[in-house]
Amino acid sequence: MPESAAGALGPGPEFDAIRVLLERWGPRAVGIGDDATIVRVPRGDALVASVDTAIEGRHFRTNWITPREIGYRAVTAALSDLAAMAAQPLGVLLAIAIPNDRQNILADIADGVGDAVDAAQTHILGGNVSSADQLSLTTTVLGAAFSPLRRDGLRPGDQLYVTGRLGGPGAAVAAWRQGTTPQVEHRARFSHPTARIREARWLADRGAVAAIDISDGLAADAEHLALASAVGIDVDLALVPLVAGVADVVAAASSGEEYELLVGSRTALDSAEFERAFDLPLTHIGRVTSCDDGILFRRGSERVAKPSGYDHLSP
After folding, report:
1. What distance in Å separates the CA atoms of residue 181 and residue 144, rounded to the nearest whole number?
2. Where in the chain is the domain with CATH 3.90.650.10?
3. What rounded mean pLDDT belongs to the chain?
4. What is the per-residue pLDDT across 225-278, written as a single tens digit (0 to 9) for each?
5. At what angle are helices 184-191 and 168-177 packed, to 10 degrees?
6. Looking at the domain covering 3-145, what would its CATH class be?
7. What count of other Cβ atoms lies within 10 Å of the Cβ of residue 274?
8. Residue 135: alpha-carbon gap to chain centroid
């Protein structure tokens, strides 16, 4: 953010808070100072937009992760929606609601937001800061894609793949709720996920026809994908790759806020090439069937009930 624009802000606590953010973000914040930002979309591309809210006590707890991790995680979750569409980020808009007596953590939250936009190679375009009884961050992301991936692109006969390894966030939350300390990798998968933006564009270029990011759990999001495409699916949970230290594949299939990608492709994807490119596994876990065949989850030849998913509106 240019110093002149920061200096042009008026007096008062709200603008003081904005100045704290801009001092932390520096050149990562662009076009701030008007009532709205201007975003230019490459010719021929579609504008892709999404919004996501992270609320204390619902999506994170401050005795679980640091303020910097809160900022990083909130923005990355929103950027993951762009990854699911194979869109290139153009920028983020961020609204922060923060209690007056916790203004001292604002700079650390800003640093986490900066980490997230750096990782996605994008910018902060603007937003809002307000006082509230509860800490929350609402992130709007803008991206562009020539042929965005959608949820409704699956057809019977397509193959299903998942990126990365699953189960870490769920294991971390389970440990915290039991009053124990999560394993280091499990905590890291919860506090510092990655929006698979480059990976998604690679997959789209090589034949992926539909995708969803795993925020509600693999099983729940696989069902979302099937319903959107009006198809059935057959998922073998025994094939699902797990984070080290996670043994229960059914629990891993329920683990929300993974932010890996579940993708469908008409033809086989080159998992070895993907792993060489991103140092990340791409695993074939099932296939798309007729809508009449329904939604099937199994472990090898053993059929299992659909694992539960994360419900953002549950008490």
Report:
1. 40
2. 159-304
3. 91
4. 999 999 999 999 999 999 999 999 999 999 989 999 999 999 999 999 999 999
5. 110
6. alpha beta
7. 20
8. 20
